Amino acid sequence: MVIKVFVATSSGSVAIRKKQQEVVGFLEANKIDFKELDIAGDEDNRKWMRENVPGEKKPQNGIPLPPQIFNEEQYCGDFDSFFSAKEENIIYSFLGLAPPPGSKVKKSPEEASSLPNGDVVGEAQGTREGTEKAEESGENEAQKEDNEDAGNLAESQEKNEEEAETATEEACCKSLMRQSLQREKPGENKTTH
């Protein structure tokens, strides 16, 4: 199964670009296979995305904005849905994927309510209850750390972008100041014979 992320590579909207970067960055960081499909440069991609976003998920104007996420042909959601799933630590369920082996990922509420043997959670709790609570507290700590790591990655990317912009602006300002000083003192740059 391949996750498809529909993006607009030439979007003029900073907000859309940041949302696209967050989705793509998260998938890359978590080594989730995906394909980025550009709707700005490919009319077929744009048409397919618009036709396959469910009606109730389309905005009032009827044109869904990127990023839009699919698992093959199955619609997963937009950025807001992705962000909520990430915050709730149910991203694999949101994407329609099985969590990687050994991960401490929560299941969605629907998945969590039934046990593999068909029992409903809460019906069959015996002597395992104390052990499970101890294990859960360890899992909760690991989940918090995972969430912090994912959040730190996004914050780090934003910080790097801001630092790059600041450095560019500073270099520009220094260059303009040098040019201005050279215009004000033209005699200093000339050599006398």
TrEMBL record:
Keywords: SH3-binding. Transmembrane segments: none annotated. InterPro entries: Glut_rich_SH3-bd, SH3BGR, Thioredoxin-like_sf. Residues 129-145, 181-193 have a biased composition (Basic and acidic residues). GO terms for cellular component: nucleus. It comes from the Eukaryota. Residues 98-193 are annotated as: Disordered. One of its GO terms (molecular function) is SH3 domain binding. SUPFAM superfamilies: Thioredoxin-like. Belongs to the SH3BGR family. PANTHER family: SH3 DOMAIN-BINDING GLUTAMIC ACID-RICH PROTEIN (PTHR12232:SF1), SH3 DOMAIN-BINDING GLUTAMIC ACID-RICH-LIKE PROTEIN (PTHR12232). This is SH3 domain binding glutamate rich protein. It comes from Equus caballus (Horse).
